[in-house]
């Protein structure tokens, strides 16, 4: 228990501390006086410091052996051969010109019919992108390869050689259409021609394309799937799930990004952190190639390189086709997000049909011959429009067909 000391105790303690302090100070003073009485010894003169020996210069480093600039760095994974621009003869150039012109004139007529109210729903035109479908699909084997795409699909069907009459009839919802008038513009379909759509959901066709490629591999039929999607769909999560599975299983598929620069109305530079879309497969070890999609010969060359790689059992390839659409995203899009001068500039400098015409001139084809082909194509498209308008609409009972595999 703490006990408070009496005041007399504190007085005694203070006196003892004072006496101790006096004794300590006297002792210190005695030591100080004693040290002052001693002579301070004289220090010896310091020796002159030696000059440091001069440093030896380091031996010059040997320059690394110069690399041979002619040898490109070797990639750490296998890639397709570098594409070469396709060398087409006169007949092949004329066929490319004819197919691209058919797509252009067909789409122009479809735009007119839409304006007249003969085509309902949405309608996405392919004007400006003709070189992509024609260049790629001209390299396919129509007896075993398959194609699947999004909703901008009219041009792909025409490039596959399908009858323009049946396609126009489908656009107008007639019974003579390729899907009996029930698919319309966005859902073209033909199992007979191995064309699996036409899909209205952005990016939905990509995993389905991987499924088609799996079927080719499972059946061992030697076929390859060509799966188209746009720069807007390139940001969809399901696309990358399909990439992962395709590379894991080495599926025979070519993923094709038709980069027309604006998706549904936003520039790819504003909407994509990585706007070099051919790199999008690198995380999945899928090699990518960027191609001039306005040059049908460059597209055909890239298709050949990609098909050789995929048919060799090496897995998928990603192609980015840099192209441009002249019209809005759909017929209802005024495309105010870009200027008319921009569109006109692309038409004048990079139009794919004009590029083929220049190649034809070099091959000795006259301007009159090309005009005659254009006249022939316009007649084919006019006939297709007349056929569509005069064809009957589907019977009411058709609403219940093609819903299930069997009737219940």
Structure description:
By secondary structure, this protein is of the alpha/beta class. It has a single domain, classed as Rossmann fold. The chain is built from 12 helices and 5 strands. The chain has helices spanning about 5-35, 90-115, 130-135, 155-160, 165-170, 205-220, 235-250, 270, 295-310, 340-350, 350-360, 365-390; strands spanning about 145-150, 225-230, 255-260, 290, 315-320. It has a 5-stranded parallel β-sheet with strand order 1-2-3-5-4, with helices on both faces. Strand 2, helix 7 and strand 3 form a beta-alpha-beta unit. Helix 5 (about 165-170) packs across helix 12 and helix 6 runs parallel beside helix 7.
List the helices and strands and how they pair.
Blueprint: H1 7-37, H2 90-115, H3 130-137, E1 146-148, H4 154-159, H5 164-171, H6 205-219, E2 225-230, H7 237-248, E3 253-259, H8 268-271, E4 288-292, H9 296-311, E5 317-322, H10 340-350, H11 352-362, H12 367-390
Parallel strand pairs: 1-2, 2-3, 3-5, 4-5
Helix pairs in contact: 2-3, 2-11, 2-12, 3-9, 5-12, 6-7
Order of helices and strands: HHHEHHHEHEHEHEHHH
Total count of domains: 1
At the third CATH level, what is the topology name? Answer: Rossmann fold
Portion in helices:
40-55%
Instruction: Report the sheet-strand fraction.
Output: 5-15%
How many β-strands, per DSSP?
A: 5
Structural class: alpha/beta
Query: What's the CATH architecture?
Result: 3-Layer(aba) Sandwich
Shape: globular
Largest sheet: 5 strands, parallel
CATH homologous superfamily placement? Thiamin diphosphate (ThDP)-binding fold, Pyr/PP domains
- Could you list the spans in which at least 5 consecutive residues all have pLDDT below 50? 1-18, 20-46
Number of helices: 12
């Amino acid at each position: 228990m703490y006990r408070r000391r009496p005041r007399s105790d504190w007085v005694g303690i203070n006196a003892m501390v004072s006496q101790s302090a006096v004794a300590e100070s006297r002792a210190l003073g005695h030591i100080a006086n004693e040290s002052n009485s001693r002579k301070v010894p004289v220090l010896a003169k310091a020796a002159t410091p030696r000059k440091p020996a001069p440093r030896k210069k380091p031996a010059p480093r040997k320059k690394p052996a110069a690399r041979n600039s002619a040898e490109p760095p070797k990639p750490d994974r296998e890639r397709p051969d570098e594409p070469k621009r396709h060398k087409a003869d006169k007949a092949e150039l004329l066929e490319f010109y004819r197919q691209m012109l058919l797509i252009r004139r067909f789409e122009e007529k479809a735009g007119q019919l839409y304006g007249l109210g003969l085509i309902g729903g949405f309608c996405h035109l392919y004007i400006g992108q003709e070189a992509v479908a024609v260049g790629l699909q001209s390299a396919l084997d129509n007896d075993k390869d398959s194609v699947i795409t999004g909703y901008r699909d009219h041009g792909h069907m025409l490039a596959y050689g399908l009858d323009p009459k049946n396609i126009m009839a489908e656009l107008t919802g007639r019974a003579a259409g390729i899907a009996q008038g029930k698919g319309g513009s966005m859902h073209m379909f033909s199992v007979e021609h191995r064309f699996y759509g036409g899909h209205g959901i952005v990016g939905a066709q990509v995993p389905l394309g991987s499924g088609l490629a799996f079927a080719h591999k499972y059946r061992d039929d030697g076929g390859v799937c060509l799966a188209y999607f746009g720069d807007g769909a390139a940001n969809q999560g399901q696309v990358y799930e399909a990439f992962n599975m395709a590379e894991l299983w080495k599926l025979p598929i070519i993923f094709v990004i038709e980069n027309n620069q604006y998706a549904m109305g936003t520039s790819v530079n504003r909407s994509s952190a990585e706007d070099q879309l051919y790199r999008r497969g690198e995380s999945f070890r899928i090699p990518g190639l960027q191609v001039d999609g306005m040059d049908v010969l460059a597209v055909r060359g890239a298709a050949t390189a990609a098909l050789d790689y995929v048919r060799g059992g090496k897995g998928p390839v990603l192609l980015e086709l840099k192209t441009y659409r002249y019209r809005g995203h759909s017929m209802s899009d005024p495309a105010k997000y870009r200027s008319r001068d921009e569109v006109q500039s692309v038409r004048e400098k990079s139009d794919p049909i004009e590029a083929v015409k220049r190649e034809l001139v070099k091959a000795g084809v006259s301007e009159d011959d090309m005009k005659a082909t254009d006249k022939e194509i316009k007649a084919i498209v006019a006939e297709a429009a007349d056929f569509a308008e005069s064809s009957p609409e589907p019977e009411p009972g058709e609403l219940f067909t093609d819903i299930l595999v069997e009737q219940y």
